[in-house]
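Dear Dr. H.,

I hope your travels went smoothly. While you were away I took the liberty of generating a structure for the chain from your last submission, since the lab meeting agenda had it listed for discussion. I wanted you to have the full record in hand beforehand rather than looking at slides cold. The sequence, exactly as received, is reproduced here:
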Amino acid sequence: MSRYTGPVCRLCKAESAKLFLKGDRCYTEKCAITRSESGEKKVKKTSRPKTKISEYGIRLREKQKLRRFYGIQESQFRRFYGIAEKMKGQTGHNFLQLLERRLDNVVHRLGLGISRAQARQLVLHGHFLINGKKVDIPSYLVEAGDVITVKEKSRTIPVIKENSEAAAAKKGGGTPAWLEYDAAKYEGKIVSVPTREQVDAPVSEQLVVEFYAR
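The corresponding predicted structure, in token form, is as follows:
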């Protein structure tokens, strides 16, 4: 399956939820979902009655919402779910933890990528080191204690410099408790693996588990 390259706001509209695919823009009044909720954007009326969504449909939509939130293709998404199933503990919590530990997501959470799509591109271009070694695989899973550093030559790239300065200006306000970021060193640290309470994915992971367990 090819990656979706159209307007990402359509994905949020399809799920009727903010998936934060455009970074800071999603927190402003320019957000399509915010505009719709405020009534600024008129919705075309239709005479067709709404079809009641089935139990399968409810679980499918929840799965799609989570997949789009992290920007992952179905094959890789399913692979991560398979790993979560084999881990001890609740499969849903394990699944979210694995998705959060992806390098592209961590770069985004640290503030070095305003969106996961941008963070993924920066990782693919090889701008980051993990414990001193170059890693350019977005799906790489970080561990507690890992140190992520922006390469010396990459620190002058405008987008990375601007994002780092913005992250520093927030003074940790935008960084999850399981991460630390030192803007002076362009360095982030994985303090611990995230707990369910520290993951803000707008989904019910149990419905995703039920979708795959059907």
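Two observations you may find useful: The radius of gyration is 18 Å. The longest strand covers residues 147-150.

With kind regards,
E. W.
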